[in-house]
Amino acid sequence: MFDNWWYASPASIQAELDDGMSATDSLIGDGQGDAPVRWLNLDEESIGPAIEDDVAVLVTQQRGVRSRGFTGAYLSGQEKRISRYHERIDDYIAGKL
Question: Where are the domains of the chain?
C-alpha cells in the first residue's frame, strides 16, 4: 500500500526528484500557462474510437445502476480485493484508520 499512496502524500509533495524539480511541479508543468482546452461537438467531431465506445457503454451502465432493480455489482475475487483496497485507502485518507 505504501508505494501507491506515497504519490499523493504530503511527504512526496515535498520530496525533490532527481532532476531538482519538486514532485508537485512535475505533475502540473512549468506553471507558465494553462493547458489548452479544446471543446468537441458531440456527433460532429471524434475524440477517438476507444473513448467513444467507452462513453456509449457508460450511458447504459449508468441507467442500469440507477434502476430500481439494481442491488449491487457482482465482483470477481480479484475485483473484490481491489475494491476493498480502495475502501481502505479512502478510510486512511479520511482518518478512519
Answer: 9-93
- Do residues 5 and 90 touch, judged by C-beta distance below 8 A? no
Residue 22 DSSP one-character state: B
**Looking at the chain, how many residues does it have?**
97
Global pTM reads 0.36
Q: Which residues contact 95 (CB under 8 A, 6 or more apart)?
A: none
Radius of gyration for the alpha carbons in the chain, expressed in angstroms and rounded: 20
Classify burial at 33, counting beta carbons within 10 Å of its beta carbon; exposed 0-12, middle 13-18, buried 19 or more: exposed
The CA distance from 94 to 32, in Å, is 33
What's the pLDDT at 92?
Answer: 93
Phi, psi of 22 (to 5 degrees): -70, 160
Q: Which one-letter amino acid corresponds to residue 87?
A: E
Report phi then psi at 16, rounded to 5: -100, 140
